C-alpha cells in the first residue's frame, strides 16, 4: 500500500520538471490579489520575444531593449524604445481578451500583459505568484527574470518569487499565446471559442518557509468511514509532525512526515454525515504542522458502480445532468468568478439537475467548490477532444500533465465523481492505448473516483444503434454522445423506432444529445431551429433512452448557447452554437421545461425505489 501511495505522490512530484507544482487550496492561504487592470501589448509577430533573427530574447545574456519582458523605459530623448506598457491600453484580469475588445474577438496569437505591484513579505516567509489558468502557452517574468513557461489553458500553475521580490515597484510581465497547434491538447479543431488570455485569478501567495503544499483527505475506496490520503510539506524542515483534525467529528490524527515531506494519512470517522445532493454536508478540516496551518471545507461520500448501477453512498442513483461550457452567454466570454458559477449552476438547479458535465476541459475552481456547497455531482474532463496526435509522445505528456494538475487541484471535492479522459475520439489502436495509459495514470493518482469518456456510436442498422468501443473495457461508466434526429438523415421521428445494442454490464449514460434552436423562433416541430423542434427532440430522445436497461444518467448538450467559430449560419447561428436550452440572452427555451419535467419524474422514481429497498 505505501509503495502505491508513494507512486501517487511521485506522479504529482514529477511536475516540478515542467514548472512548479501548484499549491493546493489557494483560498485557504494568505493571498494578495493581482486581479484588475493590466496593461497589454498585442504582438502577433512575437516581436517582443524574438529578435529579427528569430532568436528568443529570454535565452540571451544581454537581450537589449527589444525584449518586452524587460519593460524598458527610454533613458532620455535620444533613446530608442519601440514599445511602452505605460502608454498601452488595459485588459481586465481575470478575463479572456476576446470579449473585452472587438478588435480581439477573433485574435489568436501573443499578447503581453504587465502588472506593477508593491509587496512586503514577513520575515523568512516564501512568496509565490499563482495563476488559476491562462490560455494556452504562458511565459512569466518578474523584474526582468524568467520564472517559467506553462503549457495548457485550463489548469493552475505557480512560481516561487521569494528571491526576486522587491518591497516596491515589482514588474510582472506575462506573455500569453493562444495559437492553436496540431500537437497541442486540445488540437486545431474544436467546437468552442479559443478564448485567450489570463482567464482566471492571479494571486501573490505568502507561506511559511516550510509549508503544507498538498494533501488528500477523502474516504478510502469502498469505505464509508475510513479517511485515507496524505500530506506533503514543502521546505527545509520536511520531517515534521502534522495534525489533521475534523473538530465537528472530534476526529484527529498526528502523522510524521519523512525527509521528502510526505506522510500517508489514515483515520476513522464516527457518525459522519455523508455528502449527497440532498445533504451536501461539508466539514471543516484543519491541517497543522509546526509552522503552517490550513483549513478547508471537505465532504465525505462514496461513489462506485455495481453491475449497471451507480451507487452514491451505497444508494443507486440516476444522474440528472446537463453539459456546461465555461462561458457566460450574456457576456459572450469565459466564466471565472463565483458569481458566474452561481449563474450557471443556479440554472442547472432550476432544471432539477443533481449532476453537471463540465465540458470539455477543467473549469475554474469556483465551479467545483460551489458544486460542493450546492450538492451537485460533477464530471470533469481532460481536453483530449476529437483527433489529437495519438502517436506523439509530447502530446501524450501534455495530456498527462493537464490530467495530473486537474486531479491535484480537485481531489478533495466531494462533488467530483467522474474523471473523463476524452471526448469523441476516433477508434484506433494508438488512440485506445493513449486513453488506456491516461486511465491508469488517473487511477494511480486517485482510485476513489469513476473513470469515463464521451464515446461515439458505431454503426447498427436503419433502426438500431450500437455502442461498441475497445476503450469501453477500461471505463467504469459507458458514456456516449448521440445526435439522432439532428445530425444524419431524418428528424425526431427516427427516435420513435430506434433500438440500442449496448453489450456492457456497466452503467450507461448519454453524455450528449441535442438540437439547435434560436431562442424566440417558434414554428411547427418539423422546422429546424425552432424551439418546438428542439422540444420534441428532447421528449422523444429521453423516451428512447429510457428503454435502455443500463440507462443511469444523461447530460444533454447543452445548458446555454455558446460561441463557436464553426457556427456561421446567418440570422440563426452568427458565431454561436444554438443547442443551449437557454439562449444567448439568458432566456429559457421550451426544451428547458421538457427536460425539467423528465427530471422531476426521474427524481420521484428513484426516491420511491430507494424507499421501497
Ligand atoms: C459534439 C461535441 C461538442 C459539439 C457538439 C455539437 O458532440 O462533443 O463539442 O459542440 O457535438 O455538434 O454541437
Largest sheet: 9 strands, parallel
How much beta, percentage-wise?
Answer: 25-35%
* Overall mean confidence score, pLDDT: 95
First-to-last CA distance: 36 Å
Overall helicity: 10-25%
Q: Categorize the overall geometry.
A: globular
Strand order of the largest sheet: 21-33-32-30-28-27-26-25-22
Bound chemical compounds? alpha-D-glucopyranuronic acid
**Count of DSSP strands:** 35
User: Which blocks of ≥5 consecutive residues have pLDDT under 50?
Assistant: 1-18
Protein structure class: alpha/beta
Structure annotation, total helices: 7
* Rg for CA atoms: 25 Å
Topology (SSEs and partners):
Layout: H1 2-13, E1 30-33, E2 36-42, E3 90-93, E4 110-117, E5 126-131, E6 137-142, E7 145-151, E8 157-160, E9 170-177, E10 202-207, E11 211-219, E12 226-234, E13 241-246, E14 251-256, E15 262-268, E16 283-288, E17 293-298, E18 303-306, E19 309-312, E20 315-316, E21 319-320, E22 323-324, E23 327-328, E24 333-334, H2 338-350, E25 355-358, H3 365-374, E26 377-381, H4 393-410, E27 416-423, H5 429-445, E28 450-455, E29 464-466, E30 478-481, E31 499-501, E32 508-512, H6 531-545, E33 551-554, E34 562-563, E35 576-577, H7 590-612
Parallel strand pairs: 21-33, 22-25, 25-26, 26-27, 27-28, 28-30, 29-31, 30-32, 32-33
Antiparallel strand pairs: 1-10, 2-3, 2-4, 4-9, 5-8, 5-10, 6-7, 6-9, 11-12, 12-15, 13-14, 13-16, 16-17, 18-19, 19-20, 23-24, 34-35
Helix pairs in contact: 2-3, 4-5, 6-7
Bound molecules: alpha-D-glucopyranuronic acid.
